[in-house]
Amino acid sequence: MSKVGFDDIIREQDTPVIAIDQEGIIFFVNERFEQEYGWREKELLGNVITMIMPPYMRDAHNLGFSRFMVTESSRILNKSLALPVYCRDTSIKKAEHFIVGEKKDGKWQFAAMVKPLEANIA
Amino acid sequence: MKKEKYTQVLTDLRKSLAWIDLVLANLAEGVLVVGEDYKVYFANDSAAQIIGKERVLLMGLSIWEVLPLIRENQIADKTFFVDALKSQKSENMSGTYFFERDEQRLTFDVKVRFIRKIKQAVFWINDITEQKEHEEAFRQEQIALIREQIARDEAEKERARLYSLFMQAPVPIAIIKGVNQVYELSNEANNKALGRKIMPGQTVKEVLPEAEKMGLTGLIDKVYRTGETFHGNELPLVLDIPGIGVKTQYVNAIYQPLRDLYGNVEAIMAIGIDVTEQVLARQKVEESQKLLQTIIDGSNAVIYLKDVKGKYMMINSAFEKLFNFTREEVKGKTDYDIFPKAVADELRVNDKEVLRTRGTLHREESVGLGKSLRTYISVKFPLFDTNGKPYAVCGISTDITERKERERRKDNFIDMASHELKTPVTSMKIFNKVIKDLAAKGDVQRVALYSSKIGVQLDRLAKLVNELLNLSRIQSGRLEMEKELFDLNVLVKEMVTYIQISTQKHAIHIEGKLDSEVYADRERIAQVVTNLVTNAVKYSPDGGDVFVRIKKEDDYVNVSVQDFGIGIAQKYQSKVFERFFQVSGHKEKTFPGLGIGLFISSVIIQRHGGEMAIQSVKGKGSTFSFTLPLNTH
């Protein structure tokens, strides 16, 4: 399997996709994501990514994301991870996350395919 | 402008968070942040490693699920945790918990800090499994050391106790080590028994120079080499004890090899039990038994001891000789094993009577021996044990076969003597009546003839009376010798001449001559010569030569009288010099006599210090001889 790039994910239409900048601000979300997790694009764009994370994931995310930005070393990029997604209706769904990160013009941007694995778990 | 400042703040915060995360990631302690919903909000790398899950996957999981800590074999108290979170008082808790992962029990030192404001608790989890294992190992090591020390102390106490036991034991004990036989220990009893103080380090040869001669060093060496225990009973120890001298002791000894951890013999434990008193006591008993056996063996009577079942316990030599059995062969056997049933029955009846009556029984018993039957007068009496119960029958049987035979012969002799005395008396009475009748008729010539016949009968009567007198004197010990020097040649000639007159059928020859005189009772020797020559004539009824030979032999003179008459059977030859003996063949019966002539002759010769002898072949004749010592005056 050839390496999946940021643009490949952004173009994905059948799978829920979301993208953030190096500040952790959401700048892209596809329709499929909206359909799957109940959020509206206008609600997400310009907000922090922790919005779609259950509360217990947010501190860990902040720490990990901050460390990556300093060290540029990650243990979660480019591999599938089963993580929960905080839905619009406050329910939580477990989803297979595949996250990629790329630098464009000296700035990081991250895109994630968030494929639901099961029904709501909370 | 404001946005730039926020961006700057965010950047700074990110930096701070980055290094906080780095610090937390590199902490050896596991750090978990748990919310009031018990869910994990943060886990550092060490915590993830302890729990065994990827860090990112831990978020949101229940603390009870990811870290079921166990304390004192129970899941950590949830209530306590909840209360601690809610409480204003308790901010910290700590303790040692266990966590089981992959079937491995891990030990943690857990500290929990409750942060009330954010209603979260931070767990610091320190894996002290290894430390605990070290501590446990150390503890076990200490316990082992303590145990070892206790064991050493116990062993030392045991050794001291054993040593004390050895030293105070009333039985002589010594430990002898090495091929050089060095004393490692010798207790007081051993020192006392050997009569010397033995110090550890001394060798057996140094302490007991007698040991080699007695074979003790060789014995110890053998036990050393073979590893086999030696048991010896009543070993004699001849010891030269200072101040006492040479003393013999008897010991029951055990030489036990003592082995090291590898099974090699490293020492010998010698134990000796002094049995001198018992041995000496037994020896005394044995000596007494031997003495008793010697005494009863010296008796001509048959002596025996039988148990209540009739089994022989002991017999004497007379028994052995008489019945041709050894005492070993007879022991344990009954009369039924030895004698014919009829004899055994009689003996058993008598034994049973003794046991029944518990008294002494005097009984004449007949016991068959080959073809002959011997007669015994038996005295039987029971022997009683200490409880008064009879356990044996002792019998003393005196062989009276010969005595009975002598009595029979005496009775025969009396009959014969009566007859012999009566015959001349009857003859004389008849001759006397004839003389009276002839005298009345005046037949003087025939009176003289019958008168001489009466004279012959009187001589015969006088001879018989003389023999009876001599017999009486012999029996009462009054046969006296009146010795004198005389010429034996002359005496023999006189006697031969006198006897030759009485027979026409015999020719009596004298051969040989003695050059010197003899010192003896002339009358008695004349009586002996007369007896022998008369017998030669009497027992040669068909007549013939009779030789009387005189011969000097060293310091003796031998006088023999040979005839060629009826002779005497071999079996009677040893009895011809006995009192009242007369051969009992049909031919011999025809010869008159009391059967005491040869007996009287043999007594006379014995009283002179000489001997009588006989050589005879039945049907061919006999030679009777006697010797007299010369130069005895």
Largest sheet of chain A: 5 strands, antiparallel
**N-to-C CA distance of chain A:** 34 Å
Mean pLDDT of chain B: 84
Indicate the structural class of chain B: alpha+beta
List the helices and strands and how they pair.
The complex is a heterodimer of chains A (122) and B (633).
Chain A (H helix, E strand, L loop, with lengths): L5 H6 L5 E5 L4 E4 L1 H7 L3 H4 L10 H17 L8 E7 L5 E13 L2 E14 L2
Antiparallel strand pairs in A: 1-2, 1-5, 3-4, 4-5
Chain B lengths: L1 H25 L3 E6 L4 E4 L1 H7 L3 H4 L4 H4 L3 E2 L2 E2 L2 H9 L5 E10 L2 E12 L4 E8 L1 H40 L4 E5 L4 E5 L1 H7 L9 H4 L2 H5 L1 H11 L3 E12 L3 E15 L5 E10 L1 H23 L3 E6 L4 E4 L1 H7 L3 H4 L4 H4 L2 H17 L3 E9 L2 E13 L5 E10 L1 H41 L2 H33 L7 E3 L1 H15 L3 E6 L6 E3 L1 H17 L5 E10 L2 E7 L7 H4 L23 H11 L4 E6 L3 E9 L4
Parallel strand pairs in B: 19-21
Antiparallel strand pairs in B: 1-2, 1-7, 3-4, 5-6, 6-7, 8-9, 8-12, 10-11, 11-12, 13-14, 13-17, 15-16, 16-17, 18-20, 21-22, 22-24, 23-24
Helix pairs in contact in B: 16-17, 18-19, 19-21
Structure summary:
Chain A is 28% helix and 35% strand. With 122 residues, chain A is α+β, with helices and mostly antiparallel strands.
Keywords:
heterodimer, A: 122 residues, alpha+beta, 5-stranded antiparallel β-sheet, 4 helices, 5 strands, 28% helix, globular, B: 633 residues
Overview of this protein structure:
The complex is a heterodimer of chains A (122) and B (633). With 122 residues, chain A is α+β, with helices and mostly antiparallel strands. Chain A is 28% helix and 35% strand. Chain A contains 4 helices and 5 strands, in the order αββαααβββ. Chain A has a 5-stranded antiparallel beta sheet. The relative contact order of chain A is 0.22. In chain B, 46% of the residues lie in helices and 28% in strands. The longest helix of chain B is centred in the middle third of the chain and has 41 residues, at 401-441. Chain B is rod-shaped. Chain B has a 5-stranded antiparallel beta sheet. In chain B, strands 9-8-12-11-10 form a 5-stranded antiparallel beta sheet, sandwiched between helices. A 5-stranded antiparallel beta sheet of chain B has the order 14-13-17-16-15. Chain A binds chain B through residues 23, 54-57, 59-60, 62-67, 69-71, 75-76, 81-84, and chain B through 7, 10, 13-22, 24-25, 33, 35, 37, 39-43, 55-57, 59-60.
